[in-house]
Amino acid sequence: MEQLREMLKGHQLRTTTCREDVLSTFISKKNALSHGDLEGMLGENYDRVTIYRTLKTFLEKGIIHKVLDDEGLRYALCSQSCSEEKHQHDHIHFKCNECGETNCIENLHIPAVKLPEGYIPENFNLLIQGTCPKCKS
Amino acid sequence: MEQLREMLKGHQLRTTTCREDVLSTFISKKNALSHGDLEGMLGENYDRVTIYRTLKTFLEKGIIHKVLDDEGLRYALCSQSCSEEKHQHDHIHFKCNECGETNCIENLHIPAVKLPEGYIPENFNLLIQGTCPKCKS
DNA sequence: TTCAACATGCAACAGGGTTGCAAGATATTT
DNA sequence: AAATATCTTGCAACCCTGTTGCATGTTGAA
Ligand SMILES: [Mn+2]
Ligand SMILES: [Mn+2]
Ligand SMILES: [Zn+2]
Ligand SMILES: [Zn+2]
């Protein structure tokens, strides 16, 4: 609990119970979470708008990053190396079609791609869908 | 115009002006289109719901495929090889941050990735964002 | 031309996401 | 410890995307 305060402070954020709860939810669940997921878990304590704004703030501060999948937008904790200025997000995301969970695969980088002449790449986003180890029968 | 009828017929679809217009829009614009784009272009002639249903039908028949990007969902024409039963979509999508267009890069396949033990991959979706040849100063 | 099957428009709805504003909480200074 | 400036929250209202039910209009084949 004290860790959460430190973590928020480290990003120049005031400590509020909503921010602590959202952050600790991201830390305990390891998978990517949508706003709806968080609202389901914390919605009795906080207004949905507050949860939206908390996500937006965490995004801006480099605490979480966006995860795209076919169902919409989710968010996951950034690795240590992310800050407000610089994000490091060339890792792969895996969505399991059985359990529906989407996870960051931190250790696996997106392989280089040789684009046609004239394309200047900046960001990469690779989503792989399939079956995760937990759901593999 | 006759080509459109043939194309629809080939997918067991009745010819309607909405389907012809949506299909010909996909063919003339080469980039991925959102429902909103189509509504902007055709919305005076057709109800938005009809456009939604046209997109859904085209998806099911393998005429178009989904394209994910950070702003939401778009659609693009499938290559010849796609049908209702089998889709072939291991190509890369490129979104230009200048002009906002998203395009299929048909000739470029997504490179193989060695996932950790236990993951069974089925679909791949790689979005690269950056600057496209047209917008490169 | 007739008719069943299919497609459309309209209305209504659910969900995701944003904004303005007044009231409440936080960190800092005195 | 109290006062204050600054930031955060809740609420209401709103827009956008996408879906569904149903009555009416069209299509293509007999
Ligand atoms: Mn990630
Ligand atoms: Mn494509
Ligand atoms: Zn799973
Ligand atoms: Zn461009």
UniProtKB/TrEMBL annotation, chains A, B:
<feature type="binding site">
    <location>
        <position position="99"/>
    </location>
    <ligand>
        <name>Zn(2+)</name>
    </ligand>
</feature>
<dbReference type="GO" id="GO:0045892">
    <property type="term" value="P:negative regulation of DNA-templated transcription"/>
</dbReference>
<feature type="binding site">
    <location>
        <position position="96"/>
    </location>
    <ligand>
        <name>Zn(2+)</name>
    </ligand>
</feature>
<dbReference type="Pfam" id="PF01475">
    <property type="entry name" value="FUR"/>
</dbReference>
<protein>
    <submittedName>
        <fullName>Transcriptional repressor</fullName>
    </submittedName>
</protein>
<dbReference type="GO" id="GO:0003700">
    <property type="term" value="F:DNA-binding transcription factor activity"/>
</dbReference>
<dbReference type="InterPro" id="IPR002481">
    <property type="entry name" value="FUR"/>
</dbReference>
<feature type="binding site">
    <location>
        <position position="132"/>
    </location>
    <ligand>
        <name>Zn(2+)</name>
    </ligand>
</feature>
<keyword id="KW-0479">Metal-binding</keyword>
<dbReference type="InterPro" id="IPR036390">
    <property type="entry name" value="WH_DNA-bd_sf"/>
</dbReference>
<dbReference type="InterPro" id="IPR036388">
    <property type="entry name" value="WH-like_DNA-bd_sf"/>
</dbReference>
<dbReference type="GO" id="GO:0000976">
    <property type="term" value="F:transcription cis-regulatory region binding"/>
</dbReference>
<dbReference type="GO" id="GO:0008270">
    <property type="term" value="F:zinc ion binding"/>
</dbReference>
<dbReference type="GO" id="GO:1900376">
    <property type="term" value="P:regulation of secondary metabolite biosynthetic process"/>
</dbReference>
<keyword id="KW-0862">Zinc</keyword>
<feature type="binding site">
    <location>
        <position position="135"/>
    </location>
    <ligand>
        <name>Zn(2+)</name>
    </ligand>
</feature>
